[in-house]
Please model this.
Amino acid sequence: MAESHGEASGQKAGAHTEADGGHGGAFPPFDSSTYASQLVSLAVAFVALYIIVSRFALPRVGGVIEARQNMIEGDLADAQKLKDESAAALKAYENDLAAARSRAQAISNETREKLSAASEAERKVLEDKLTAKLHDAEKTIAATRSAAMSNVRGIAADAATAIVQRLTGVAPDGAAVTSAVDASLKGQA
Amino acid sequence: MKIDPIHQFNIEPLFTIGHIGDHTIAFTNSTLYMLVAVALISVLMLASGRQLVPGRLQSVAEISYEFVASTIRSTAGAEGMKFFPLIFSLFMFICVSNLVGIIPYTFTISSHLIVTAALALLVFFTVLIYGVYKNGLKFFKIFVPSGVPIYILPLVMFIEILSFFLRPVSHSVRLFANMLAGHIALKVFAGFVAMLGVSLGAVGWLGGVMPLALTVALTALELLVAFLQAYVFAILTCIYLNDAIHPGH
Model:
């Protein structure tokens, strides 16, 4: 009897014929007397599940996932913003540094030029002064020398007069002595 | 010792709820396991935490959510998300009840054709009604593929219409047959262990190692099948709904 029921239902009869000795009823999946109960159970259970899932479960889990997604995106955006800011700060710092460096370069060049110009001028003044002094000194030396030379002539004439007087006992003629001294000085010079 | 691989599919009324016409509506073991599945899904989805960094249970809930959501998006597009609750309910209901059914001495809801047929018809009528509601008569363009030469169009249309109306059959029988066959195979091999031991004594108990190993392997396979059939059911639902959303192909 179970046999015929299974065959009539058409499918999976092979599995059923093999070992259906244990109980008297039809092959359970094809026992239509249980269909109403199963359908009602399924309807109740599935509708309940659908309501739970659509009203509570999915909004809840979806909300958690979305909140996390938003948080991650927000954090990433913040990180990007901070990164951009730090890059901008680095750029500004580099610009400032370059500007300061070129300014320092300019100032040092300017100072160097000013100082060298000043020292050059000072050197010139000093050189002129020294040249003038040298000139004066040379003049003084020449004057002194000529003065000394004229003194030498006088002394030589006096000495020659004295020597001649002592040797001869006669005072020589002054003009003759002077011309003799001049001649000897000329010969020496 | 007798192997009775069919006993596990028996519907046992626990108590009677009422009558509809001639039919007795009973609270059966099937009802119980349906409610168990609903309860397990509810616990998973509602009692898991809401942490920023999810724990294990919360991860399972979120992975299920995103798994089903991405399946719908990839097969039916963003508009398919309207049916997210339906597909999520179907997937979770089938998956959880299949997995529970692998535990020895439990009952597998989807091993009954009436249940899988009811679910498949639910999908079928959802597709049909939504398709007509959304697209009007344009919905029936799914039976007229574009670019087919006119002289074979009638044949193609006939095949398309036939396959459309056979969808609930293949949709339901696939799940039902997989669960039924898997559980029968498990029971048969597990029964061999005891049968060998009882009939052949010590030699039989030693020989029973092989069917035992097979039972273990089959259980692993059944775990895969339990998940896979739920996934197949869900993804076919998505594909069918895609027809209703975008009937032009």
Remarks:
- Chain B is about 70% helix and 5% strand.
- The helical segments of chain B are 29-47, 56-76, 84-102, 113-135, 153-207, 209-245.
- The CA atoms of residues 44 and 61 of chain B lie 6 Å apart.
- The longest helix of chain B spans residues 153-207.
